[in-house]
Write a structure and sequence with these properties.
The chain is built from two helices and 25 strands. By secondary structure, it is an all-beta fold. The strands form seven sheets. The chain has a four-stranded antiparallel beta sheet with strand order 3-2-5-6, with no helix packed on it. It has a four-stranded antiparallel beta sheet with strand order 8-7-9-10, with no helix packed on it. The chain has a four-stranded antiparallel beta sheet with strand order 12-11-13-14, with no helix packed on it. It is extended, with a radius of gyration of 35 Å.
């Protein structure tokens, strides 16, 4: 069966240094492998510019993914660079109906080559629900690959998924921390960091770490531990800033604040202050109209040299639960809301009418920021209130 591929392509050939006098003397195309300039399939010559709207036969190509290349030569016998596009030649419908799954195999991590994996089974259609043993794998992260072959001996592309083989519980109980070390910014290699201490089953690290050798600016601290089997764990890290020392005579001349979204330097709400080497601000005195829910109050300063510092953030909420959602499913009433910063207790109140007297409802169970109870009959109206410090 003849197959054709419609190519809509505009190709303009510009040779370096001379744009207009040349004409395109030849255009050719080829599939997948370059036969060399002049050895492709000719389309037509002899125009200053070419708008190609040509049917190109793909009858000689095997089903699957291919790449079409097109290039042109101008009348000074100089070939331009080829342009290309990928396309797919589909399998004939009849071919699919005659094909079935002949083999399935899997492998871990590294491909042993088609046909060299661990076989599962073969059938015309496959719904794979098979327990695969991981007993030969070392604890840690691995990747499982599965692929199939049809009755024409053609292997498909492997499908994969990542999984984790846990360490045995007994292994953990027999292991202890033998060493802890830290380093800044660049990894010197396991065992080459600055040691802290070791030889204990669990580590609660509360240590002063010297940052005196570091230059002012943003840095990253890494900490990792080694067990008594000489295995290093992955490092844990945290970024921090070493501030620049203020030059003699430099003063803070402006403070501004904003909530959540940065309006840009100098565009925040200005705080009245007396310029000085240091200033203090009562954040509680700042008037900040906000929507209900969690927010972040940012404050930053500019010095007498005109330099702005990085903003400092303080999280807060107005104490009123936001994004309240109520639903009833299978006779169970569910309330959920946004968990508020600084709030550790919530209470639910209900009433028979929206304008009625709301009393505390103790008939439900609280989660972190949700509450469930049997659905009432007749219906009731609900409020969620936060309680600070209870």
């Amino acid at each position: 069966m003849k197959k054709s591929f419609l190519i809509p392509l505009i190709l303009l050939l510009f040779c370096a240094g001379v744009l207009y006098p040349e004409v395109i003397s030849r255009i050719e195309y080829y599939f997948d492998a370059d036969p060399g300039p002049g050895n492709g399939n000719q389309i037509y010559p002899g125009r200053d510019a070419v708008d190609i709207d040509e049917l190109i036969s793909t009858a000689t190509l095997e089903p699957g993914i291919h790449r079409l290349f097109v290039r042109a030569k101008e009348d000074l016998d100089t070939w331009g660079l080829p342009r290309s596009a990928s396309f797919f030649v589909p399998y004939a419908a009849a071919a699919f109906s005659e094909r079935s799954v002949a083999a399935i195999e899997y492998y871990f991590d590294a491909d042993p080559g088609p046909g060299s994996g661990v076989p599962v089974y073969g059938r015309s259609m496959v719904d794979l629900d098979t327990a695969i043993s991981t007993s030969e794998l070392e604890p840690g992260i691995h990747r499982l690959y599965v692929r199939a072959k049809d009755n024409m001996d053609i292997w498909g592309l492997p499908q994969s998924a990542t999984f984790f083989v846990p360490f045995a519980a007994t292994a953990f109980s027999e292991r202890s921390v033998a060493a802890v070390e830290y380093y800044f910014d660049n990894d010197p290699g396991p065992g080459s960091g600055t040691p802290i201490y070791g030889s204990r089953d669990a580590v609660n690290l509360d240590e002063l770490i010297n940052s005196a050798p570091l230059e002012p600016g943003i840095h990253r601290l890494y900490v990792r531990a080694k067990d008594d089997l000489d295995i290093w764990g992955l490092p844990q890290s945290r970024s921090f800033l070493i501030p620049w020392e203020a030059e003699a005579g430099t003063m803070i001349t402006r403070l501004e604040y904003f909530v959540d979204a940065d309006p840009g330097f100098g565009n925040g709400t200005q705080v009245e202050l007396t310029p000085g080497a240091s200033v203090s601000v009562d954040l509680a005195a700042l008037v900040v109209p906000v929507e209900h829910g969690n927010h972040c109050l940012y404050i930053r300063a500019r010095n007498s040299e005109g330099d702005w510092g990085l903003p400092a953030c303080r999280q807060f909420s107005d104490g009123i639960p936001a994004n309240l959602v109520i639903s009833v499913t299978d006779g169970i009433l569910s309330l959920s809301w946004e968990d508020l910063y600084g709030i550790d207790t919530y209470k639910v109140f209900s009433a028979t009418l929206p304008s009625g007297v709301f009393s505390e409802d103790t008939g439900g169970i609280f989660g972190t920021s949700d509450w469930t109870a049997p659905a009432p009959d007749p219906k009731r109206f609900y409020q969620v209130r936060s309680v600070y410090g209870e």
